[in-house]
Amino acid sequence: MDIRPDYQEKNNIRVINRKIIVFICCLLLSIFFWFLNALSKDYTTTITFPTKYIKYKQNNVLNNLPEKITVTLRARGYKLLKKNIFGLSDSATIDLRKNIGIADDKFYYSTNQNSDKIKLGTYTSNKISNITPDTIYLSLTEAVTKQVKVKPILSYQLESEYKLIDSITVLPNTIEISGPRDLINLIDYLETTPISFGNIKDSITQEAPLNLKKEWKGLLNLSVEKVTIKVRAEKFTEKTVQIPIELENTSDIKIKIFPTTATLKFLISQKKYETISASDFKVVANYSKSKSTGINKIKLEITKYPTSIQRLVVSPEKVEFIQKK
Predict the structure, then answer these.
(1) How far is CA 63 from CA 139, 142, 215, 303, in A?
(2) Global pTM?
(3) Which sign does the torsion angle of CA 251, 255, 258, 260 carry?
(4) pLDDT of 188-236, one tens digit each?
(5) Which of 114, 193, 203, 293 is most buried by its number of CB atoms within 10 A?
């Protein structure tokens, strides 16, 4: 029985396709094993590490030290691949408690001579061929400490009818700083990084990092790096109370004032509206202060009022008086 030409052609195509698939699989396996072999080999590379220093003494200030060092080393391919894909998280830790040299009255640390003592994280055990800079010069200064205020840098707007019910709170509002004496003497306060609260219609609490000038970093130590800022706001409304006016310092003189009551208007938080009454206030007319003016009017004084109210106004501002016979 004869095989049809079209069936024979399709069968040949399937055979070719299987060969192509087998070829691609073999090629991918070859590349994979080549890649594994390449990653297991050592390569010479140059890496820049951020630096950390262990001080000679805890109260030493280390001035003008390099923030980075460049290291030429040999490392396995898989370490370098990890670095290139995920980035470098290792840092170079340099211990200044040992191996400090002195020449021409200057202290120094030789990075290449102490390359085996510099810790490079996951690269610590790798063979180092060169470090730049070769020498780190040290300016060792005794640190001094000082208490300074924290100044919050804020921007905000209060929603309509909302007002602050207390002063802005910073915790802690005073911190301890330490560093070179010349620098410490220049600092009277520290500012926070600028914080924007936007429109406020409630109480807000937020952390704010302290803002250090670029040239201070590495020289200045802080007791805290952040402070907590609290802003308390509530909706206010107007309230009016009427209270009797009290006469003071009339001696034996009998006088009569007009009017005998005063009207007080003020803003109060809606939450405290019902807690404020006329008994929380005191308005006095001090007769002795009118003697020097020569007119028969006494200016009213508010000698008692709640601290939680705002925009307190008394009406009238003065009262007339007559002397009784």
Answers:
(1) 6, 11, 11, 58
(2) 0.50
(3) positive
(4) 999 999 988 888 888 888 999 999 888 777 678 899 999 999 998 888 9
(5) 114
